[in-house]
Design brief:
single chain
């Protein structure tokens, strides 16, 4: 009993950080990544059905771009709202509500009788997706020990290219026998995964402790420790080592984002998300339609888009390894600069040439860097803020990024008739270059440092340092 009392005297962070990675951690990872995967299918599907919807409703390129951007408007609102709600009411309830919203909205998309109605349902769908993404990365970052945190979150983001590829395969087979409405009906089914989340994912002990709900935090921590012990087949776990943390914040979560402690981080991560997503979604949402415009059939353009997305699998795996080997900052810069060069090459040579081999090879290289970029974004962002502002910081960064996502497809719809496909990919490359520059100038390194130690650090005297010493 005395040992139990001594363990209970440690903070949630100390008790979670000392746990070895176990089957329990992997189960939590699979569940969170699974929900992320299903959302990613919905998000990526517009790339494959936009051409069919454009044809059915007789939309211009600008109107089609507006439709493609609709879900990102909802995502911007959802991301900002979910962060505030999750820091106020907890991670788990907000995560569950997000899944209900996107499941219902996906079905409603299949019933749209006009482009205007479909736009409304896509905004609602985006609201649910926007709520889910930042909460997923926040939950995983708060459950996973520092030594594996970046790798696991980067691997979670790897379910995004898998979701994108799955979306393409669903579209490829369903569009050959049915229409785009059937696709959205099928995409509503995975919302039932909510039941798995509700049963097996606990509330974050870090958040419970921060919210003053110490008894609940103790119950959750004791259950986690028991499950880890059982999974590892051991009776005793390593002794906790208390972690130096910042004093409790007196201001609200939103106010913290622009405090002296976090101001430069917020400017950096908002700019990073905005330009990265402006370039990414401006291009990927239109890939299928651009290939159709270049003379490829609908099903063939879908299959080519799926095929080049396979490059994202080694991309996110490589990034998941490098974020712990190199660090978050250099890996992020390398992915963005590599993406900029690959995007420019793809647009200037492959699509314009109309030849299949350079189209596929350059597309694989492009997706390697772009999906690697995504993996770093999700690993890096929640590490920049303290527990009281982590979900809000992640949510608002995502929200700013969704503004870029909103503008990207519409911008392509405007640029394409005037500058052609080469101009579209040049603009995309420029976005990734600007994002890389922001990370180089203002980014900080977070590798090997606990979330509490990161929040306790004073603003860095030299923001250009690529790495900081590890604190043990």
């Amino acid at each position: 009993m005395s040992q139990q009392r001594s363990i209970a005297a440690y903070s949630a962070a100390a008790r979670l950080e000392r746990l070895p990675i176990s089957g329990y951690h992997r189960v939590i990872f699979i569940i969170i990544a699974g929900a992320f995967f299903f959302d990613s299918i919905d998000l990526g599907m517009m790339t494959f059905v936009l051409g069919s919807i454009k044809q059915e409703f007789g939309l211009s390129t600008a109107q089609a771009g507006l439709l493609a951007s609709a879900s990102f408007l909802g995502m911007a609102a959802g991301a900002a709202l979910s962060g505030l709600l999750a820091d106020r009411f907890g991670r788990k309830p907000v995560f569950q509500v997000s899944m209900i919203i996107w499941g219902v909205a996906s079905y409603l998309c299949s019933t749209a009788a006009s482009a205007q109605e479909l736009i409304f349902y896509r905004v609602l769908l985006g609201l649910g997706m926007g709520m889910e993404f930042p909460i997923a990365q926040t939950i995983l970052s708060e459950f996973t020990p520092t030594r594996q945190r970046g790798r696991y979150i980067a691997l979670m983001d790897g379910f995004w290219p898998l979701g994108f590829i799955t979306a393409g395969l669903i579209a490829y087979y369903l569009l050959s026998v049915a229409d785009w409405r059937t696709v959205f009906v099928v995409l509503a089914i995975p919302a039932a995964f909510l039941l798995v989340v509700r049963r097996y994912v606990p509330e974050s002990p870090r958040w419970l402790e921060h919210a003053g709900r110490h008894d609940e935090a103790e119950r959750v921590l004791s259950d986690i420790e028991a499950r880890v012990s059982k999974s590892l087949g051991v009776r005793t776990l390593p002794e906790p080592v208390e972690i130096h943390a910042a004093a409790p914040e007196k201001r609200g979560a939103l106010g913290l984002l622009f405090s002296a402690q976090y101001r430069s981080r917020t400017i950096m991560v908002w700019g990073l998300w905005f330009f990265a997503l402006l370039g990414f979604y401006g291009l990927t949402t239109w890939l299928g339609a651009l290939l159709q415009q270049a003379g490829f059939a609908v099903t063939k353009s879908v299959m080519y888009t799926v095929l080049i997305s396979l490059g994202g699998i080694p991309g996110f795996l490589c990034a998941a390894w490098l974020v712990e080997k190199w660090g978050r900052k250099p890996t992020c810069i390398a992915a963005l600069l590599g993406g900029a060069l690959a995007v420019y090459a793809y647009g200037q040579t492959a699509i314009l040439a109309g030849s299949e081999t350079p189209l596929i090879v350059s597309g694989l290289i492009m997706q390697f860097f772009l999906f690697g970029m995504w993996a770093v974004l999700y690993a890096y962002t929640p590490e920049l803020y303290s527990t009281g502002a982590r979900a809000t910081g992640s949510g608002f960064a995502s929200a700013v990024g969704r503004v870029g996502s909103l503008l990207g497809p519409y911008l392509v719809g405007v640029v394409l008739p005037n500058w052609g496909q080469g101009g579209v990919f040049t603009v995309g490359a420029g976005c990734f270059f600007v994002a890389a520059l922001l990370v180089y100038v203002l980014g900080v390194e977070t590798r090997g440092i606990s979330l509490e130690e990161l929040s306790a650090r004073q603003p860095e005297p030299s923001a250009r340092a690529v790495s900081v010493p590890r604190t043990r």
